[in-house]
Amino acid sequence: MDFRLYFRSRQGELVHLLKQIVALESPTDDKKAVDACVSFVARELKRAGCKVTPYPQPDTGDLTVAEFAPGRLKDADDEILVLTHIDTVWPVGKIAAMPFYVQGHRLYGPGVLDMKAGLVMLLASLRALHGLNAKPQKRITVFVNAAEETGSDASTELIRKLARRASLVLCLEPALPGGALKIERKGRLVVRLDVRGRSAHGGTPEKGVSAIEELVAQIARFKRLRTGETTVNVGLIGGGEKPNLVAESAWAVLDIRFWKAADRDRVLRLLRESVPALRGARIKVSVESSTPPLEKTMASEKLLVRAQEIAGGLGLTLKAGKTGGGSDASIAAGLGIPTLDGLGPDGDGLHAEHEHLLIPSLVERTALLTELLKEL
Ligand SMILES: [Zn+2]
């Protein structure tokens, strides 16, 4: 079976399925919206021959684990874990201003690339393997995260548990622009800074300690954290109560990215040692989430070479590169499990209004995923 031809003739079905999943808008912080999309994808996974187990969550969307054709592959020793996520960074209603549409080879819409296309690739691959009665070499387990964009303790725990019993992990996050896989990723740390000052009347600010002024002074010092390729982004900030009051509290949330675990430790140490600029101010530093970097290992390089051979058989060239963004692949790789990330389609505009994928690449990557699931 030439899966490139097979999926080329089903390009319309892939695009249609993607349109349905994109229409079910699923911002991480809207449980009801995410769960509606989860139900749809769970139903499709069952149709593709999977046994689906939901993991209900109180605040975020429900997590889903699916086992492909469990009866047929029960004697296979090894297991492939496929990582996907269903949540996006786009609020409900965004689709009105950022519609799903095709222009030439490009397909636009909220979450098309990150990573609803990954779900489409997966569903189409499993459906093909199921329909053709194929018998892959390994058991296949799928994880559909519902809180990837923010990270959640429950999903991290579940990924660790699933990854520990897998012999390799495939992550369907989008490729690097140009189509390369992501073999190295930066780690990510989300840190919250809480500053306390002392309230006073706005007419006599000298009687108080402004938490806002302290926070601004701290932010100005972040230059010292940004060494090498370590980045610090102040993504959220807040504080104060009224214009005529000296702010008693202020806060900021930082997103820090680094290549090596040692860089993370250095930044965290410097933040924890922060000395207030204003007398009487206090600073509290807390880690909201932490994702390890994806570092290249011998095992992951071996897996890459094998994937490149399989891609070669389809007439595709598979390159590998590195990226700043974090993903669930890093959690699995952090346990030492060989991991390939960026198996999703080529495109551009992650978390941006021009988010789009290249349709020929969606077809190629679906064919590649099907071969990888069958042959690895
Ligand atoms: Zn993603």
As a percent range, the share of strand residues is 15-25%
Fraction in helix:
25-40%
Total beta-strand segments? 16
What is the radius of gyration computed over CA atoms, rounded to a whole number of angstroms? 23 Å
> What is the oligomeric state here?
single chain
**What is the CA-CA span between the terminal residues?**
16 Å
Shape: elongated
Specify the structural class.
alpha/beta
Identify the bound ligands: zinc ion
Order of helices and strands: HHHEEEHEEHEHEEEHEEHEHEHEEEH
* Adjacency order of strands in the biggest sheet: 1-2-6-3-7-14
Tell me about the biggest sheet? 6 strands, mixed
Number of helices: 11
**Which runs of at least 5 residues are low in confidence (pLDDT < 50)?**
none
Overall pLDDT confidence = 94
Describe the structure.
- This protein has 376 residues and is α/β, with parallel strands linked by helices.
- The chain contains eleven helices and 16 strands.
- It has helices at residues 3-8, 11-23, 31-47, 94-97, 112-131, 153-164, 211-220, 261-272, 298-313, 328-333, 359-375, and strands at 50-55, 63-68, 79-85, 101-103, 106-108, 139-145, 168-171, 181-185, 187-196, 231-239, 249-258, 282-291, 320-323, 339-340, 347-348, 356-358.
- The strands form four sheets. A six-stranded mixed sheet has the order 1-2-6-3-7-14, with helices on both faces. It has a four-stranded antiparallel sheet with strand order 4-5-16-15. The chain has a four-stranded antiparallel sheet with strand order 10-11-9-12.
- A hairpin with a 7-residue loop joins strand 1 and strand 2 (63-68).
